[in-house]
Structures are given as structure tokens and as C-alpha cells.
Predict the structure.
Amino acid sequence: MTHLRFFRRFAGLVLAGWFCIANSSQAQSSSSGQRDILREITEVVGLKPRFQLRATSQVQNAAAVVYDGQRFLLYNPQFVAAVNRAGHTDWAGISILAHEMGHHLNGHTLRPGGSNPADELEADEFSGFVLRKMGASMAQAQAGMAVVSDDEASPTHPGRRTRLTAISDGWLRANQQIIASNRVSAPSATPAVLANRATAPVRTVAATTSSPVSVLGKITFRDNPGEDYYVTNALSVVRLDHDDRTAEVVGRLTRSESPTYPYVLVDGRQRRLYVSRSGSIFDTSGRQVALLSDPS
Ligand SMILES: [Zn+2]
């Protein structure tokens, strides 16, 4: 889904060609009888669908263009179908339309010049945000980009990992809004599986009776209430084994920007839990999984 902004200068020509075809056959604003994707996308960001969606074989993949003061999203239906097949989900094609709409809504199509990495990442983040709002899981939101992006960065487009991270950032931003507004069950936040993902090893340390560690709080997990976890003065989260007299560091608390969830608990595998002001701990789908309390 190369964003063909350079294509804009030819847009007039292509659109004129398209209108000829459309007027002589059936004008088609979206895949007829199917979901009104454009309306769904604009509704979740609180906007009116002031875009025209055009299926045309005159673009290779998809493009956001302005023509005669109107905003168009052009897409090649064969390309979108191929992306859906390769990504094994219709969310893949939807993410491409959301990405192109992100170019319009971020004002990229109002500026001269071609594609650039910063604009691409903004559009990617927008697509992640929108797809989470529409109900896609993290992996579904990343599925399209995972198949169409290049491994390596180019002068106009960032590399695949950077782009998937941008989608993940948008998805998580929407997710946090949703968690904050209503804590109902939500789609899985598990990212798309990538090869070569290194897993940080969990560090194990032996506790000695003289270690000058003080304890700030105790964490009790709902599904494992018998096990004791403590937050140390260094904000490490440790699991105590009373019999072995060992303490295993299993995670860390870090401060966040969110006033609702001032701390984030990150474990050795970079999974995240969100700690509310009252000490309730939520997973990424908004389920309360633990409680942080006084270390009594
Ligand atoms: Zn783009």
C-alpha cells in the first residue's frame, strides 16, 4: 500500500478517466451491498464521511488524492482482495483504507511533495487507532502492513518493523481510551507474530537476609492468590519463594503519562499491565487481573 502521493499530479487525468467509466456503467462508491467501511472509519473518529471511495484499476494499490476540492480514496479492488487473502483477514484491506484516510485527515494531501517516512508513520498510527476502535485485535490491525510493507526503509517509506510499531502505538492509544471509558471485554492485544523476535530473559536474583530492599506494596493476582509478589523501593516486581528464600525479579513498574493509569507493569517478556490510581491492575483487554495493596 505504497501511498502514491506523487500520483496526485496525475490524479486529474486518472479521475477524468474514471468518471468516464463510472458514468457509462454503474457508479460505485463502495463495494456494493457490503460494509460501508468509509462510514465506519469516520464514525469512530467522530467525523462525517466527506470522502469519496472509488474502486479503480487505474491505481496500482491505494491512494489519497484531492481533485477539484474533493477528497478521494482510490483503491484497486484486486490489490485489496490480494492483501486480504495474504493477511488472512478482511481487516487487512480495511487497514489500507484507514491508512489512506489518515493521510487526508492529517493534512498530508494538502501539502505539496511526495511520500515521506514521517507522514507514512502518522497514517499507520491512525490506521491502528481506527481499527482498534472498530473492534480489530492488534494482530488484525497489523495484518495488512505485515504483508505489504518492505523489510527495509526507503527514502519515502519506513521499514516494516517501524511501521508495525506505529500501528501498535495507535492501537494501544485507542485501547487505553476504551479501557478508561468502559471496562468490558475487548479484542486480544497480542501483536502479529514476527520471526526472529528475541525474548528478554527473566532475571533471577537470590535474596539474602541482609539485602537492603524495602517493600512498597504487595501485588495479588486474581488467578494466583496464593503467590506473593512485592514491589520494591527500586520499583522492581519480585516473586518471593519463602521456602527457597529467593526473590525472582519478574517485572518492573514504570511511570506513565496517563493520569488514570499512573503506572505500567512490564514483565520480562515486555507484556504490559496498567495500574490505576486505586491500585487495581488491568490487562490490555481491560480485565482486572490483580490488586496492588499495602505490604501488610
Ligand atoms: Zn501512505
